[in-house]
Amino acid sequence: MLDVLTPLAHEAGDLALSHFRNLGRDAVAEKGPLDLVTIADREVEALVTKRLRQAFPEDGVLGEEGGHTRGTSGRVWIIDPIDGTFNFVRGLDDWAVSIGLMQDGRPVAGIVHAPAMGVTLSGGVDAAPLLNGRPLPPLTGFSRDRALVGVGLGQSVPAPERIEMLRVLMQDLGIVFRHCNATTISLIELATGEVDGHVGYGESAWDVMGAWPVLTALGAVSTVDWARTPLDAKLRFVIGKPELVEACRSLGREAWLSPAAP
């Protein structure tokens, strides 16, 4: 499957890069506060959807920019054409193309390609986790005294709740956080050991699906049960090293969309 996904992600990344290098005011439209969509988003999603439909005609496809093709196989491809659009339009390198596959209620394969950074993360249930084509080691142990997590702060969650989550992380749990404004990049950092986990508040399935199966293959656990989670839900979750996820449960069970899968 990666023999299809890898060249596709790079083709999509090259298309996005061609726009990134020629950013103009006319290419940007507002979807909402700090939520931007570009011509590049639409073109990349159309390209990825077309290629996936050609390669896997019986599969469904769900894209962030509104594309939804139902399939008959029970498999669904989930696309974020450019995760980190705000970074993209500001000329920052922290953005990526994300393609993930759901089968029988669980993420099974995915790829995240960050072309401006020269980084590609791929793998899943039947494919070894790879970074730029090289095998990744399992996640290392958790050290509470130097814990670090990435955070995603979606606009769908009221600001007071996002602020309270950050307060609990810093004050109650003593965990340092970083926010790069691109979930895919934060999840790559988890895969490479730069952070111990990721706390998502208000993110969507397309933000995470490309990296999710790679992370679980590396030993990450989460608070999401995908079999009971609608693909259009706004997610509140933790994914990462088991000890980190357990520590973050003290943020309050009501804060998570669903309990951890068994």
TrEMBL record:
A GO term for molecular function: metal ion binding
Keyword Magnesium (UniProt): yes
UniProt-listed PROSITE patterns: IMP_1
Keyword vocabulary terms for this entry: Hydrolase, Magnesium, Metal-binding
GO biological process, one term: inositol metabolic process
Gene3D superfamilies per record: 3.40.190.80, Fructose-1,6-Bisphosphatase, subunit A, domain 1
Documented EC number(s): 3.1.3.25
Cofactor annotation: Mg(2+)
Reactions catalysed: a myo-inositol phosphate + H2O = myo-inositol + phosphate
Residues the record lists as binding Mg(2+): E64, D80, I82, D83, D207
Family: Belongs to the inositol monophosphatase superfamily.
Protein name: Inositol-1-monophosphatase
